[in-house]
Predict the structure.
Amino acid sequence: MATLTAETTIKLPSGHEIPQLGFGVWQIPAKEAKTAVLNALTTGYRHIDSAAAYRNEAGCAEAILSPSASLPRSQIFFTSKVPTPAISYNGTAAQVDKTLAATGLGYIDLMLLHAPYGGSAARKGAWRALVEAVEAGKVRSIGVSNYGVHHLQELEGHIKELEAGRGVGKGGVLSVGQWEVHPWCARKDIAEWCKARGVAVEAYSPLVRGERWGEEVLARLAGKYGKSEAQVLVRWSLQKGYIPLPKSATPGRIRENADVYDFELTEDEVSELETDEYAPVCWDPNVSPLDN
């Protein structure tokens, strides 16, 4: 495999590059977001994953634009997400503008639909609003979060329908999908679907909220490499080709989660760590029906 470094990026179907290691900010209070993100940027993270529902977009942007970060905006990849109540054409178009106004970043690197709720017509309208946001220069890449394979297949149909009505190439480009992914929720069906289409897979809750500390294989690998179990899990995700989004507001853990480039799991160890369990520790909209 290619050598992974803190500067490793993945080229998206949109043509833009995304840093492979991201910093998640779910549940980080708005008043703490600026400090946490500044710590992450100082550590070396260049990819910040937020969402309208997290209510900390503005704090993240303060850090990104802060002179303390000493980084140009172009070097930092910022993601946000359209919340469930806004999954519609008008709601999504409005949310893009709200995020731009709240952050002052000038553009959004990646905007995702946060969950596949609202029904087929609403999802199609929301996707069209994202496509138009890209065309308007407000957003650079677009994608979805928590979609099951049935939702992804429906989206492919929506893209074809939009192309039929708007013109070839105007149905939008699905660049990224974000899911809870870790060895106890590997989502092989989704990973295979995305790989076949070149869609990048982002992994939230890659540390399983700490609920699997002490598992035999994980503990053994941590001991072998002299690393924490969290670092082994981040490394597993990177070597699978995913984009892990570990989160923490603790400076030491922020640094630890990024200190994963001085060891490499073997192919057998990557496989051994992965299980056939389906044990998500977060919400799981992936299994919701199309007519939800």
